[in-house]
Design brief:
The protein is of the alpha/beta class and 328 residues long. It folds into two domains: 194 residues, Rossmann fold, CATH 3.40.50; 124 residues, N-(1-d-carboxylethyl)-l-norvaline Dehydrogenase, domain 2, CATH 1.10.1040. It has twelve helices and nine strands. A nine-stranded mixed beta sheet has the order 4-3-9-8-7-6-1-2-5. The longest helix has 22 residues. The two termini are 38 Å apart.
Length: 328
């Protein structure tokens, strides 16, 4: 099988390096100083118990990649709309496209049978740019549960975790998803295949929709947010609004709010990805993680005042700091 990782930043380069080391035919798509460094020296991965260099194939233009069997989209949600139209040269008749984005993915309601079946979310798929370019039948969903960062161009630091959950949008256990999981497992990752990825997406959102924007507004770690009674109350209110929304969608949450908060507290002095992006001056995943949740709420008649208030403040902060979120 031929694998392509589009947007080989911290997450994509890490996955690509592992797969290349394991002997898979993998191509990384990247740009700028990071690409140049990888071309000259390979991809170096540094973790607590490992330090290695891999040399996967690299391309700056997707037209040079060729047809692929599996495409991993490792760009953040706000980077997908301008990129999606460039994927045509790598998509063969049976090419699978694996989404890795946080928040509500663009494909979520495409094959859903619930109350919003067929709904396109403008916050993550403006004008249908993504869903038009990537047919629903190609999509394999995933959730990333590891932390990586680019310490310098061409060098990826692996901080923690090694799991990527995979799931077909319809919950089936297809042959293609088994083959993708087998390749990731052979490369050193945990890659469970779940029939309930939609539920798992909402469990992750339950935390992200509260912790991410509040951390951006306050500069606080998970432990700091949860040690303050006022922010703890706000977090719980946002989570309750999100839980009520999932009930309207017919989604059964796998964990309680208290369990989700306790799990975050155990992580300790950790900066959310949104806070890290804000500090680095990068665009925020605000629309996919929070804006899309509010859009779903609007479509089912929920006001979600706590979520909306925090979203409005985080969006203004991002704009004033020059790390503007994707425009809604």
């Amino acid at each position: 099988m031929k694998f392509l990782i589009v947007g080989a930043g911290a997450v994509g380069a890490y996955m690509g390096a592992l797969m290349a080391r394991a002997g898979y035919d993998v191509t990384l798509h990247a740009r700028g100083p990071h690409l140049k460094a990888m071309q000259e020296k390979g991809v170096r991965v540094i973790s607590a118990d490992d330090d290695f260099v891999a040399r996967p194939r690299l391309v700056a233009d997707l037209k040079d990649a060729g047809l692929m069997d599996v495409v991993f989209l490792c760009v953040k949600a706000h980077g997908l709309p301008p990129l999606a139209g460039q994927l045509a040269p790598v998509l063969g008749p049976e090419t699978a496209v694996v989404s890795t984005q946080n928040g509500i993915p663009w494909w979520y309601f495409q094959s859903e049978s619930g109350p919003l079946a067929g709904t396109r979310l403008e916050r993550v798929d403006p004008g249908g740019a993504v869903s038009t370019a990537i047919e629903a039948r190609r999509v394999v969903g995933s959730l990333i549960y590891f932390s990586t960062e680019i310490s310098e161009p061409g060098v990826v630091k692996h901080n923690e975790g090694n799991r990527i959950s995979l799931g077909e949008p319809d919950g089936s256990r297809s042959e293609r998803i088994r083959k993708i999981a087998d390749a990731l497992i052979a490369s050193g990752l945990r890659a469970p295949v779940t029939a309930h990825l939609r539920n798992e997406i909402w469990v992750k959102i339950l935390g992200n929709v509260a912790f991410n924007p509040i951390s951006a507004l306050t500069g606080a770690t998970l432990a700091q947010m949860l040690s303050n009674p006022d922010t703890t109350s706000l977090i719980r209110n946002i989570m309750q609004e999100t839980e009520q929304l999932t009930e309207k969608l017919g989604v059964k949450m796998q964990v309680s709010i208290e369990q989700r908060m306790a799990g975050a507290a155990k992580v300790g002095e950790h900066k959310t990805s949104m806070l890290q992006d804000l500090e680095a001056g990068r665009p925020l995943e605000l629309e996919a993680i929070v804006g899309a949740v509010l859009e779903v709420g609007e479509r089912v008649g929920m006001a979600m005042p706590h979520t909306r208030s925090v979203y409005a403040c985080a969006k203004l902060l991002a704009e004033r700091r020059g790390a503007g979120a994707q425009k809604s």
